[in-house]
Amino acid sequence: MRSETAKLVEKAHEKSSWPTAEVDGMLLLQAPSLKGQRLKHAFTTRKGGQTPAPFDSFNLGRHDAAVDHWNDAMDNRKRLCAALEVPFADLRVPGQVHSKRVVFAEDAQQLKEVDAVATVSSNVPVLLHYADCVPIIIFDPRRSALAVVHAGWRGTAAMIASEAVTALVNRAGSEAWDLIAAVGPAIGSCCYPTSAEAAKSLASTVTDGELFITLREGQPCPDLRAINAMQLLERGLSTVDVSDLCTACNPDIFYSHRQSGGMTGRQGAIACLI
Ligand SMILES: [Zn+2]
To answer: How far is the C-alpha of 79 from the C-alpha of 75, rounded, in Å?
Structure first.
């Protein structure tokens, strides 16, 4: 008989094809487990907007200093909110500094040094943006609460997804078992050779961590989506829904920091309680 851990490891590695929808020209993905729930959500792609190269064509990040770039990103954020029918005026976008800091939108004066935003309020959309890092939406259908999480390798090594669960438990009264987590498109182990140190620190966050690192040509290649899924399963979640898409394998659909050599735009994950 297989151990409980072996079952979790297998579950954490499961990935599925998510349906896409074209809304107002934007190509959006939705996690099957979040569809029909009392929230609006989307994982965006690079398809849909007017953003010029090399950030073409639906960039949501304001990581370039040029004024046109900022204005274009704001236009795209507005269009995304309009497509989902959520209020752009109340949109929360944290600074994302690869920390493990989770804050509630209701508490935060500013979101500069924050990588996950939670809320218990309706009509407060939260948007985080990515280009290989792991986007995670965590939703509590019983207590109507959510968190949107930015988990790059540093955030994953610091277990930010688990921190977000703890924040929901402490502040919203969530029980981990009730939570639904959707882990969106991100760089796969197919395209992600890392240093031995990074691989080791990632593996140390879960039981049997070595099963989440593949050796390719002598270099460790961690599966960041599966490691985040395993952290969430070990934290007690019952439902973790993982997209099968690698951002670096699909440069026509997604921005990829690795694949582009660093010069690229940002896709987003957005969620809003209704
Ligand atoms: Zn890949």
So the answer is: 6
Q: What is the distance in A from the centroid of ligand 1 to the CA of 121?
A: 36
| pLDDT tens series, the chain, 274 aa | 579 999 999 999 999 999 999 999 999 999 999 999 999 999 999 999 899 999 999 999 988 878 898 899 999 999 999 999 999 999 999 999 999 999 999 998 889 999 999 999 999 999 999 999 999 999 999 999 999 999 999 999 999 999 999 999 999 999 999 999 999 999 999 999 999 999 999 999 999 999 999 999 999 999 999 999 999 999 999 999 999 999 999 999 999 999 999 889 999 999 999 9
AA letter at 150: H
- Which tokens is 50 given? 């007017």
**At the fourth CATH level, which superfamily is domain 4-273?**
CNF1/YfiH-like putative cysteine hydrolases (3.60.140.10)
CA–CA distance, 132 with 14 (Å, rounded to integer): 19
Span from the CA of 173 to the centroid of ligand 1 (angstroms): 38
Does the pTM of the predicted model rise above 0.85?
Answer: yes
Closest CA to 226 of 216, 238, 212, 236: 212
Q: How far is the CA of 78 from the centre of ligand 1 (A)?
A: 30
Could you tell me the distance, in angstroms and rounded to a whole number, from the CA of residue 243 to the centre of ligand 1?
13
Task: State in Å: Cα 256 to ligand 1 middle.
Answer: 10
